[in-house]
Amino acid sequence: SGSAAPPHLQRLPQPDDAAALAALQRSEADVAVVSVFAARTLLAGGWRTASLAPRPYVIAVRKADQRLLSEINHNINQMEQDGTLERLFSKWVK
Asked: At the N or C end, where does the chain have fewer CB atoms within 10 A?
């Protein structure tokens, strides 16, 4: 169906941005995909975010996870260049 996570990743669906960020803060999740508005509170608290610009979403990671953030940004850039990101947004967000 195109929604399966890679084998080394596990999806942890949350009902809303606040729950996703709480799971991240409790270290139950390594990343959270949330709205830009929710992420603004993270930035004030020393968290790191990777933008899915020009989309209104970000991927949030703990400040200590700089390597993970770098890998996420690298993959987002590749997905933007090859059109994958646009196809995903067209299928799941629009």
From this structure: N
Domain segments of the chain: what residues? 17-92
Superfamily, domain 17-92: Periplasmic binding protein-like II (3.40.190.10)
Q: What pTM value is reported for the model?
A: 0.50
Q: Which of 46, 45, 19 is nearest to 34 (CA)?
A: 19
Secondary structure, 3-state, 8-58: CCCCCCCCCHHHHHHHHHCCCCCEEEEEHHHHHHHHHCCCEEEECCCCCEE
Q: Chain centroid to CA 11: how far?
A: 12
Q: pLDDT for 30-83, tens place per residue?
A: 888 887 777 776 666 666 665 555 566 778 888 788 888 888 889 888 988 999
C-beta separation of 46 from 24 below 8 A: no
